[in-house]
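re: that chain from earlier
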Amino acid sequence: MKLPLPFRHLAWSNLMAQSAEQISLAAVPLVAVLALGAGPAETGLLAAAQTLPFLLLSLPAGLLADRHSRRLLLVLGETLRVLSLLVLIGLTTSGLLSIAGLAVLGFLGATGTVVYSVAAPALLPSLVARQQLGLANGRLELARSVAYAGGPALAGALVAWSGASPAFVAAALLSGVAVWLLRRLPEQTLAVRAPRHPARELLDGAGFVWSHRLLRPILLTTVAWNLAWFVLQAGYVVYAVRHLSLNAGQVGATLAAYGMGMVVGALAAPGLIAVVRFGTALLIGPLVSVAAGAVMAATLLAPPGLPAGLLAGLSFFLFGVGPIIWTITQMTLRQTVTPGAMLGRVSALFMTVSMGARPLGALLGGLVGALYGLPACILLAALGFVAQAVVILWSAVPALARLPAIDDTDAGRPAAAPA
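^ sequence. v structure.
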């Protein structure tokens, strides 16, 4: 099934933008440590600056995406990333780079990412026919997976080869190409709506999700998964070194398996959606996550060294495969059942609760690890993945034979482009 040209522009821009983001995310802490002598406190500040916009700005971005041109928002968001990278290049080459500068520019670049991440899924249903949404989401997630797997490695190689500037130049060039591609997208006409108070509109979006029999369990599953994932992330590296007796290279290899799994999952998802009941396809991600958590828990019983490392690598591979299939299927469902005029706010709500659950999971994992030991952290994460599967299994989602019909009251939903 051939996807229309405007979508292909969006897909290629997504690959460029995601690659630029991953290169810069990996290069910034490397530069901070190697060139500026940063320690844990400084790298923590940089990580916070790069994630804070997702919590603070996702909902405002969703409101803008439902009021204004989503194409324009995509262009503006990616242009903001280009500008932040150009300033970063200037500071690097002039010798004026500082931790504070990295933090401010990281915040601005991440703001562009937030705008892009909210506007793109809201724009997608206007670019492809309804029956193509699963395939289109799969292509977008494949681009993200490739960028996630290759971007950090490229950034590390560039920084090691000749310092910070080449990595930031590469990211800026990729981001600039993304802007050029986004400018080629067609303009979108949104339904004219009477102006309302922003808080009222945000509450309408949240109320729609919470009252929807399919979206509410998806939201709760998303929160539970992110809590469990960051409980695991909080203690894994220390656990791998101290309890599994893995060296730095082996730890890196286990983490790289996650990106490989994402690529495999993104490639497999459209085919799965086409051949199995849609409710079954939605269950694959949560159930594979349960299996991945169980494999990670099995490392507690495995001999230290290579046997435990292989199990850990398999676990991360499964964590890459399952959740990317979940992301594609649940996003396709969201885009189908959500009124077009509300797509931005709904996407923003999911992003906000997902990002909000992450620091809570990390804090919980750190606390449990400190009080009861790292094995307890691994077991708690495994139980969390069981909980997220139970939430979706006890909902109306598994009964879906196919994507629900579009509601006739879906006023404001843009017409799909011809295939």
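DSSP finds 13 helices and no strands in the chain.
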